[in-house]
Design brief:
alpha/beta; five-stranded parallel β-sheet; 7 helices; 26% strand; globular
Length: 403
């Protein structure tokens, strides 16, 4: 493969910026362009719910550095792509040619408001965070629709600001991701802090205009000073007009972050795996895919996997760090410490031998958790080999992830 002379990265996201930095690290000296639609530039999004909602000063550490990359930076939206001509057109009518294209446009917040209905709040951008923070300063009550990571982090911000908050979902908090064991712990902690958890059998709709509440599946109405929708994301593929590698799920990629269109790669929240159809909209995964997409665009092998199973959240003062595949199923196979006391180290060992390690309220570095997961994986492999008589591994069954 001939090394591309010109590479365009669409999306000033962590995936896009990581890809651009990796391209330079791997020796790309040709033209490199980043097209970013957010006029505020590229910035870290995880702190929006974890820090910015609590403290305006947290905004000072969000921005990503780009001045050392020797790039052309366009702060305008990409609106169309001609895959045959290998060009991208922006909102101002600029047309940029590329030899390789990396799509890293992320996702937009999923909204529940009807067409023309105003007042719904979401949290996806810095402007969203600023708006929500300002509203929290005057509100006395809030409804959060969605009990995933983002919804529970927003609920935590409400509690910290003294705002009475109700979280509404069809499932208990984080049940689809963390399974019943940790979900029950999160729910108990939330309720101890005054968070009201409401189960609804069907998706809610938003009430009135401007929005002042939600209509539950049974027809009852719950109202509050503000309503925040945390109901997932919608991959940002509008600039592709449903053409080329894009479909309703986003942009499909293989293990090399290559799409079905020649010369086009994708990374981050906009991408899903063509092998299992799943997206993994997490920061660590976006970084990993950005590196792999850059290497693939240059025709090089990447030393990084396109999947990084690391997740982190903080809910009502308890940090939850996870290394390993999700969702979690059933009870943990190993527990050290106490969930009730807010300090436990837990391990799930899956049938495919890939363990998941969770630090619940315990200070553990990512490197330490990765090491522990690796030890658990090797121990599990030894167990299975020993039980089938394939190898003789003394004491393999006595190994513990915590040692």
């Amino acid at each position: 493969m001939t090394s591309p002379r010109s590479i365009v990265v669409v999306g000033e996201s962590i995936a896009g910026i990581t890809a651009a930095r990796e391209l330079r690290t791997l020796g790309h000296t040709g033209r490199l362009t980043i097209i970013g639609a957010d006029e505020l530039g590229g910035y870290s999004r995880p702190p929006l719910s974890k820090a910015v909602l609590h403290d305006p000063a947290a905004e000072g550490s969000l921005s990503y550095r780009l001045d050392d990359l020797e790039i052309d930076l366009l702060r305008e939206a990409a609106v169309s792509t001609d895959f045959d001509a290998r060009t991208v057109t922006t909102a101002t009518g600029r047309t940029l040619a590329y030899d390789a294209l990396i799509a890293a446009t992320g996702a937009d917040a999923r909204r529940l408001a009807a067409r023309g209905q105003t007042g719904e709040l979401v949290l996806r951008t810095l402007e969203d965070a600023r708006t929500l923070r300002a509203r929290l300063s005057t509100a006395t009550s809030a409804i959060v629709v969605g009990a995933g990571f983002l919804g529970m982090e927003v609920a935590s911000a409400c509690v910290a600001r003294g705002v009475a908050v109700t979280v509404i979902d069809v499932d208990p908090p984080l049940r689809r991701i963390l399974g019943p064991f940790l979900s029950d712990a999160v729910r108990a902690r939330a309720e101890e802090h005054g968070v009201r958890i409401v189960h609804t059998p069907r998706l809610v709709t938003l009430a009135d205009d401007p929005v002042c509440g939600v209509i539950l599946g049974d027809g009852s109405v719950s109202t509050a000073d503000l309503v925040v929708t945390c109901a997932g994301e919608v991959p940002n593929t509008s600039w592709l007009d449903g053409s080329g590698p894009a479909d309703e799920r986003g942009i499909g990629i293989d293990h090399l972050c290559a799409t079905t269109t020649a010369g086009v790669y994708a990374a981050g929240d906009v991408a899903y795996s063509i092998h299992d159809g799943r997206r993994a909209p997490f920061w660590s995964n976006a970084v990993a895919q950005g590196k792999v997409a850059a290497a693939s665009a240059l025709g090089l092998a990447s030393s990084t996997s396109a999947t990084d199973d690391y997740f982190w959240t903080e809910i009502l003062g308890v940090s939850i760090k996870i290394v390993g595949p999700l969702p979690l199923v059933g009870e943990p196979t190993n527990v050290e410490g106490s969930i009730a006391d807010g300090a436990a180290l837990l391990t799930w060992k899956r049938a495919d031998m890939r363990p998941t390690v969770v630090a619940y309220g315990i200070r553990k570095s990512v490197a330490a958790l990765r090491k522990m997961a690796g030890s658990a994986h090797r121990g599990r492999a030894d167990e299975l080999a020993d039980s089938t008589g394939l190898v003789d591994v003394p004491n393999s069954r006595s190994r513990s992830v915590a040692t």
